[in-house]
Amino acid sequence: MIGAQSFLFLALVASQFASGATDPLILRVGNIAYTVDPNTLGIDARVDGAAPLAVMPPLHEFARVTVVPDGAGWRWIDVEGRVITLSTESNALHLTISGAAGSSLAWSMPGVASGTWLVPDGEGIAYKADDPFWRAKFRNEDCLAGTSRLSFPAWSYLEGTRAVTYALVDGLESNLCLHDNAGVQARLTHDFVAGAETLDLLFAVRPADLLAPALFYRQMLKERGQFKSFAEKAVPKLPRLFGAPQAYVWGDGRDVSFLDQVQALGIHHIVLSYDQNPRTQSHLVGPGYLAKADKLGYLAGPYEAFDNAQPMETAEGPYAIWNEELYPAGCLRDAHGKIVAGFGNLGCEMSSEATARHPQAPSPASRYASHLRDGVSELFLDVDAFGEFYDDYSPDHPMTKSQDRANRLARMAMAIDRFHLVLGSENVTAWSAGVTHYSDGTAPRTSPKTKMAAAARSIAEPRGTQVMPSV
Fold it and tell me: Global pTM?
């Protein structure tokens, strides 16, 4: 939404652009005047008339373009044939770039020698640009994906009394890349593909604050009607989650007597998660265990995953067993038509589109229902929330990364909305926060495969309990 002050200013200067002139565009947001060169996409900001502050350097070489009014803003086509729109939204500058399928964009942030990058890597890290440790860390460029490595797709550069914040409306196919070049520098990359045809960016200049990116991103979600509170994700037993540690239990930790030991320690809230394989485990969590856990006010439920399929005779766990209609027919296929191997080369990666097209059992819904009949109150669904998506080239269930994300969102939401389970998943980030209650593994620079391997090793131990924090 454009502010009244910005609208009045644009109305006064509209006539000079109707003829196709390419002078800089000036958009005002409160006491900030943003100057945008439509020829190069260089962006500066002046706060209260002070010296210009670099927001974005030129993206490409100078070339004359034709700018036309577009609603309350402007529209033009750049030298690469990309469609650009510019306007203001609330207290920010709003820019979109739409590119041809298969093309990409790489846009450097302003070069810096000092100051601090505030990046939501895991729980958030402040990278001081001239710090020798961080410079060495980023000697080789490291790219953080907007749906996985970034907990939410917004970051800030803080220096002196100002924080320049950059926010992506959608992080799909976008990366924030950090590298050293006389200081920690940053650049934004984006691949224009189906479901991510447009790079949608917001820029804001605010007073310095270590929480600048988080505060701005939260504000953006609220103003766009996309913020989802815990109250909106409520299920009857959700209050049991608050203040609860999470324990993965194996061995005799899955015996009913273990629950008496937990109670004797004075623990009133706990999340008890487990994995079990009838072929190899002597202790299995059954309805009696779940009923007692529920009576004690605890949350308890299994490890579940929908992304892997293995032969029934040798599957390492129930979650990898589908039926002959889905395995191997439901496996992901790459661009060459080859089946994509599963984690650890076990079975295959199961296509979320294949399972979405197979509503009868076995399906995510049938598994949720089965767990509920056993007395489960919570469930940890591995991988789904991490933010790594796939294209599927199978002619029977073709899928883009965007559709993969939509499928995962739908089946996570189903656990809450239809089956009223408390739901956790792996490394929950902004795109999946609305359909989950807690996150495992929200930490900087830890790949999902590493965490899965560690979890597998823990589960394989003969007895005991592994306690992990819930977020």
Answer: 0.89
